[in-house]
Amino acid sequence: MSRVIHNRIAMFRADVGLSRRDLAEIVAVNPQTIGFLERGDYKPSLELALAIAEHFGVAVEDIFAFQPFPSLSEQLKRGS
Amino acid sequence: MSRVIHNRIAMFRADVGLSRRDLAEIVAVNPQTIGFLERGDYKPSLELALAIAEHFGVAVEDIFAFQPFPSLSEQLKRGS
DNA sequence: GCAATTTGTTATGTAAACACAACAATTATT
DNA sequence: AATAATTGTTGTGTTTACATAACAAATTGC
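YS: structure for the whole thing
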C-alpha cells in the first residue's frame, strides 16, 4: 500500500489569502511541514489532514484524494 | 498537535460482516494493523484512512473524527 | 466435545512523518 | 532599490505508523 495522494492545500490557502506560516500555526505544525505537503514531498497524517479540512470547513476528500484534482479552468467549464 | 482520533472501523466492519483479516487484505495492510487501529493503539495514515473510507463508500469523517461517535442506541433516538 | 476462525497481546525492526535549524531564492511592499 | 515577507532547499534527529512473527484467548461452526 503506497498510493499517491494529491492535495489542494495551496488552492484553499490562496482562496482565503493565508500564508503557509499562518496555516502551520493554526494546525500547530512546523511551517516547513505545510510546504512539504503542498509539494507532495510527503503525505500528511490523518490527524493533520482532519485539522486542515476542519479549518477550511470542508471534507477531507475535498482537499486530499487518490485522484488528481481538476484544474480551476477545467472545473469552470462544467457548472459547479 | 496530538489529538485523539476516534473511529468506527469495527462498526462498519460488523455492518457488512467483514473480518479484520478481510479488511486488511482489501486495503493492503497487515491484519494486526486493523486491530491496532480499532483499539486506538495508533492512528492511521491519511492514505489508510482514505482507503478504508473508500471501501465502505463513505467520507473519512464518517469513520474518523476528533469527537467521539454517538452509540448506536444514542443514534436511534434522534432520527437518522 | 473438538476444530477452525477471529480477536487480543507482546516484541522487534524499518520507513516515513514531523520538528527544528539555517539559509537561498523569489515575490511583494514601500 | 531596499526591505520585508513568503516560499524553497538541505540536513539532522525523534517519534510513530506499519510489517512481521509467535502465541494466547475467545468465539463460531461442525
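YS: worth flagging: The two ends of chain A are 33 Å apart (CA to CA).
IM: good catch. Also The mean pLDDT of chain A is 93.
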